[in-house]
């Protein structure tokens, strides 16, 4: 048939895909990973090390803050220990995503996690951790529990008020402290995040705590068990320690009136 032009045949080997998975590509990736100063010495490191993504850069997280994370941030955690049989280091790399972390931040954390694995010659097992839903393996690095606080480092695009100028709680939080089943079905006392609504101002079999601006408001449920007092006081002492600028106020009952969605006014008695 006249007028038709036979399409040109392209060979994938002439494209960039020809390098995909090749030794040359691996060398380029390794060379790029070697230029990240945060990874220096990780191949011989034994223990747990944490970095936070700050304006798309990998920054050391202070050891005094290990076990504490901010929900507006993303982190990379390296854990390594010697294999008793081979005496070689086994590596696990986790990237932790806070609930309010930006797409840019957790995207950078994911990319840098791959880069760290490349630096370690692909010997690491990679894990993704979501704030509040961490794996048991991850929690074991910190004695079985971690603390997640509001806020975070300012991103590469958005201005954030310096931490010393911020209120302890930039948004209202409501928690119920009561017995809930653990993974084995055993009932244990825990603080549970609840939606900030009228119906959740009551927790007959436990405690209600509201975190708002520079206050922590507490109400004890009418049917709260005696054995809840000690674990609740222990949990509240941790909150006071972690939020020293916040003032605790104890009330007998909460009342909440909806002004205009989604704003609410809370009163107490």
From TrEMBL:
GO terms of molecular function: actin filament binding
InterPro entries in the cross-refs: ADF-H/Gelsolin-like_dom_sf, Gelsolin-like_dom, Villin/Gelsolin
GO cellular component annotations of the record: actin cytoskeleton; cytoplasm
One Pfam family per UniProt: Gelsolin
Top-level division of the source organism's lineage: Eukaryota
One BP term from GO: actin polymerization or depolymerization
Domain Gelsolin-like: from-to ranges: 63-139
Annotated PANTHER family: VILLIN, VILLIN-LIKE PROTEIN QUAIL
Designated name of the protein: Gelsolin-like domain-containing protein
Annotated organism of origin: Pocillopora damicornis (Cauliflower coral)
């Amino acid at each position: 048939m006249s007028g038709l032009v036979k399409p040109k045949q392209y060979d994938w080997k002439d494209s960039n895909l020809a390098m995909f998975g090749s030794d040359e590509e691996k060398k380029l990736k390794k060379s790029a990973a070697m230029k990240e100063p945060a990874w220096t010495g990780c191949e011989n490191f034994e223990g747990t090390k944490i970095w936070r993504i700050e304006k798309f850069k990998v920054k050391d997280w202070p050891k005094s803050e290990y076990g504490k994370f901010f929900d507006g941030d993303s982190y990379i955690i390296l854990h390594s220990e010697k294999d008793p049989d081979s005496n070689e280091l086994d590596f696990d790399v986790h990237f932790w995503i806070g609930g309010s972390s930006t797409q840019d931040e957790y995207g950078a954390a994911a990319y840098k996690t791959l880069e760290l694995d490349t630096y370690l010659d692909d010997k690491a097992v990679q894990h993704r951790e979501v704030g509040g839903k961490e794996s048991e393996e991850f929690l074991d690095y910190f004695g079985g529990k971690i603390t997640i606080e509001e806020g975070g480092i300012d991103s590469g695009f958005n201005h954030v008020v310096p931490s010393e100028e911020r209120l302890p709680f930039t948004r209202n939080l409501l928690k119920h402290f009561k017995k809930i089943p653990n993974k084995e079905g055993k009932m244990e006392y825990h603080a549970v995040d609840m939606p900030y609504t009228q119906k959740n101002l009551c927790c007959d079999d436990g405690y209600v705590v509201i975190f708002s601006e520079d206050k922590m408001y507490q109400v004890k449920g009418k049917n709260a068990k005696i054995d809840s007092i000690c674990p609740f006081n222990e949990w509240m002492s941790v909150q006071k320690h972690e939020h020293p600028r916040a003032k605790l106020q104890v009330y007998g009952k909460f009342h909440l009136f909806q002004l205009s969605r989604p704003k609410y006014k809370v009163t107490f008695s």
